């Protein structure tokens, strides 16, 4: 077997393993957040549990991340039709919406702090520690998603994606849609379970 044939087989094997590996990592993230939200529900029975309204910025960030999934979906659709320029514009818009989401989460953390609701310290409560901690963990995952988007944008510039070969783009899109759905779950969870 020649070196070139071996290299081609290795490339094919890596491509076949990419999506299943991503799905396994996302399942582990689901289990992680399911554990955190379960602990939240159990802790609600505590006598020192405090309820409060979600900051307006969490509503704004929800809109931004949902819209970002729409723009990413459209970007991928246009790339499949070989409309590269439009695809790239929508990809950059997705990135900017992701940055906007992170900013709105930061504003939300400050709103909670200004309302006297802290993550830690003598005036913190179990409920605020949970909501800030869980939301912060999601933001960290979204920052990873923003890095993934930067890689996808870079590869898009380098013409690494073709209508018949979108694996890297698809992997990035799957992860981005996953963190979108995860935030919607967390937002609805905090909205309805207080």
Task: Please provide a written account of the structure.
The structure is a single chain. α1 packs antiparallel against α4, α2 (56-80) packs antiparallel against α3 and α4 runs antiparallel to α5 (167-192). This protein has helices spanning 3-43, 56-80, 84-114, 126-157, 167-192. The chain has a single domain (3-192), classed as Cytochrome c oxidase, subunit III, four-helix bundle (Four Helix Bundle (Hemerythrin (Met), subunit A)). It is an all-alpha fold and 194 residues long. The model has no long low-confidence stretch (mean pLDDT 89).
N-to-C SSE string, H for helix and E for strand: HHHHH
Overall number of domains: 1
Overall shape: elongated
Task: Please give the radius of gyration in angstroms.
Answer: 20 Å
Number of helices: 5
What ranges have pLDDT less than 50 throughout 5 or more consecutive residues?
none
Q: Based on the structure given, which CATH architecture is correct?
A: Up-down Bundle
Fraction of residues in helix: over 70%
What structural category do the secondary elements indicate? mainly alpha
Percentage of residues in strands: under 5%
Distance between the termini: 63 Å
Average pLDDT over all residues: 89
Short synopsis of the structure:
The protein has helices at residues 3-43, 56-80, 84-114, 126-157, 167-192. With 194 residues, the chain is mainly alpha-helical. It has a single domain, classed as Up-down Bundle (Four Helix Bundle (Hemerythrin (Met), subunit A)).
SSE arrangement:
Blueprint: H1 3-43, H2 56-80, H3 84-114, H4 126-157, H5 167-192
């Amino acid at each position: 077997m020649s070196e070139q044939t071996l290299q081609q087989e290795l490339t094919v094997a890596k491509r076949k393993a990419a999506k299943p590996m991503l799905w396994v990592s996302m399942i582990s993230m689901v289990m992680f957040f399911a554990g955190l939200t379960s602990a939240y529900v159990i802790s609600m029975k505590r006598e020192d549990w405090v309820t409060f309204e979600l900051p307006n910025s969490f509503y704004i960030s929800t809109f931004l991340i949902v819209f970002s999934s729409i723009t990413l979906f459209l970007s991928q659709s246009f790339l499949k039709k070989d409309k590269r320029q439009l695809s790239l514009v929508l990809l950059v818009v997705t990135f900017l919406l992701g940055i906007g989401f992170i900013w709105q989460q930061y504003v939300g953390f400050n709103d909670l702090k200004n309302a006297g609701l802290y993550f830690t310290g003598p005036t913190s409560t179990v409920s605020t520690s949970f909501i800030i901690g869980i939301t912060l963990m999601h933001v960290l995952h979204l920052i990873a998603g923003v890095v993934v988007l930067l890689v996808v944008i870079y590869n898009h510039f380098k013409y690494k994606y073709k209508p018949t070969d979108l694996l890297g783009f698809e992997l990035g899109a799957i992860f981005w849609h996953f963190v979108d759905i995860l935030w919607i779950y967390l937002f609805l969870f905090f909205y309805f379970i207080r």
